[in-house]
Hints:
By secondary structure, chain A is α/β, with parallel strands linked by helices. Chain A is built from 14 helices and five strands.
Amino acid sequence: xxxxxxxxxxxxxxxxxxxxxxxxxxxxxxxxxxxxxxxxxxxxxxxxxxxxxxxxxxxxxxxxxxxxxxxxxxxxxxxxxxxxxxxxxxxxxxxxxxxxxxxxxxxxxxxxxxxxxxxxxxxxxxxxxxxxxxxxxxxxxxxxxxxxxxxxxxxxxxxxxxxxxxxxxxxxxxxxxxxxxxxxxxxxxxxxxxxxxxxxxxxxxxxxxxxxxxxxxxxxxxxxxxxxxxxxxxxxxxxxxxxxxxxxxxxxxxxxxxxxxxxxxxxxxxxxxxxxxxxxxxxxxxxxxxxxxxxxxxxxxxxxxxxxxxxxxxxxxxxxxxxxxxxxxxxxxxxxxxxxxxxxxxxxxxxxxxxxxxxxxxxxxxxxxxxxxxxx
Amino acid sequence: xxxxxxxxxxxxxxxxxxxxxxxxxxxxxxxxxxxxxxxxxxxxxxxxxxxxxxxxxxxxxxxxxxxxxxxxxxxxxxxxxxxxxxxxxxxxxxxxxxxxxxxxxxxxxxxxxxxxxxxxxxxxxxxxxxxxxxxxxxxxxxxxxxxxxxxxxxxxxxxxxxxxxxxxxxxxxxxxxxxxxxxxxxxxxxxxxxxxxxxxxxxxxxxxxxxxxxxxxxxxxxxxxxxxxxxxxxxxxxxxxxxxxxxxxxxxxxxxxxxxxxxxxxxxxxxxxxxxxxxxxxxxxxxxxxxxxxxxxxxxxxxxxxxxxxxxxxxxxxxxxxxxxxxxxxxxxxxxxxxxxxxxxxxxxxxxxxxxxxxxxxxxxxxxxxxxxxx
Lengths: 376, 375
């Protein structure tokens, strides 16, 4: 057995890889899921996960309508962001409307608006926002305030007072589209699904069926078995990245300001980390179900919740921010966003890439160790 | 028939309560997840890191910077340097906003009564950038008013009478506590996860073990069998919801302005719909692995299209229409309306109606599907 030549080992590895590819190709159901799921997820994320605030429903309480109050009402109707759904004579019906979720904001105009303006008296307006969701609530209130301010400048110009004007530049995402934020992060989720989850299942299936022991007594070395197992998934992951990038570009017009090559290289690095993690999970669990649950709970959930992909890390409490450092996707999400939205290159991203590489080395060391223990 | 239902129910309850792993999965895991997720799942905008590029170094510019500092919304990063360095820091996400006060800021203020500043924000996360910009604009407006009073008291006293007084109020969450908003929704999501997964796995496991065939040849009718499967999980899910409500009230301080009765009536109907989906999955899937995959996919769609994390109003119109068939969307809306707004039966009648329709449809579909498979 010891005289197996190097070249025959190499051809054995190739044959083994061919067998694995056939395995994947033959399981049509799973293959379809793996190829379609990423694009389906992208569409779901792109269309459903949005934090943009628009089409705000406003109720206007106009006790004694006059020309001035009509003008203010028209301001809201014509703002493009507000939809005046109710015009009420009194504020009594306001609470039930809010409770039913029929309106988002209410503006109460005190009677005699026109008179007060022409007499130079202060005008009283009250804005009420449904602040159940604090972010959306305050954002809607701010938009409403902006409409009132613009109206005020027109009817009662405050010439002579000091005005501070700010020229605002929204860098990296001028249209504030949330799609631009979520799509780069989604690549991390998809790669985790294809690499970690699938390797964990595929390897633990061989273990469960006892075929892994058969492989171990073959002329293949343990690392070759693992490489043969995971290489096809790496190729699949690469295909997924390409398809998601293409869909992001064509359907959602997500910008690509940096180098595609760097992004693809980082994707391969992250995929390899995911594959190593899957191998480690398969080596420490005893059944397919356990491996699957561990992969879901141990990688998918943290990657979704603690990577900054949906929820900003800066908003989390300190302990969770610290834990997030060991979540590989946290670093990869940052790389994707930086390259796509900011056009960052190596000088800015080397740290993130170095951390991912270090994670890869540690995971590979653990995986190799576990495999050797099994051999003994 | 009632007799056999009682016997089957006893068997199911015994089977569940004897399995320590399942008991832990049912009661401990979701509560831990609730505690962690409520802290992780937040879009709350904490203090933004501010880079100040003061090119004016005047009394007015320093006053403006102080106004930003005392607002409590911004922390100033200690570094200084040219705008190029500031932009690099913005790109590396070391700062969130750059405030540029140009060199002729005070001179312009005195001459033209207009001051110009520049705000440069990292808008990768558009929603967060928008909120930060809102705070900055507010600070600028307040500082302008202060300056008016200080620099030209005569003009200001005449003008201020004519100004509009806009008072603003934030209803239903006056302290703007993000957790009060998210905790009820996350609780519903976790109860759904456990309920759906348990139903889906429960029957598939009997299939895998072959005991389903044994049950099918007994005189028990299918209706009784399905009722015996669903009722225990329905009860468990309600108990779980109660546990979560206690945590929401006493750990997170979520208010309860409405009546618990509305919540439980809604929950009863909602859970029938959620478990119906689990039943459907279990009749479609052959193995536990398949059941798990399908459950995962269904729950992902549920969660993302429910308004749990992101507002439903932000979605395109046609997506909002599709989202209406999602029971989670209606029940989360109901939970929030009852806890935070004190909504009663009349206020949430739309949600109750939608849940009833969805529940009836999913249960019917699931039972039909189950018959087909078993036949």
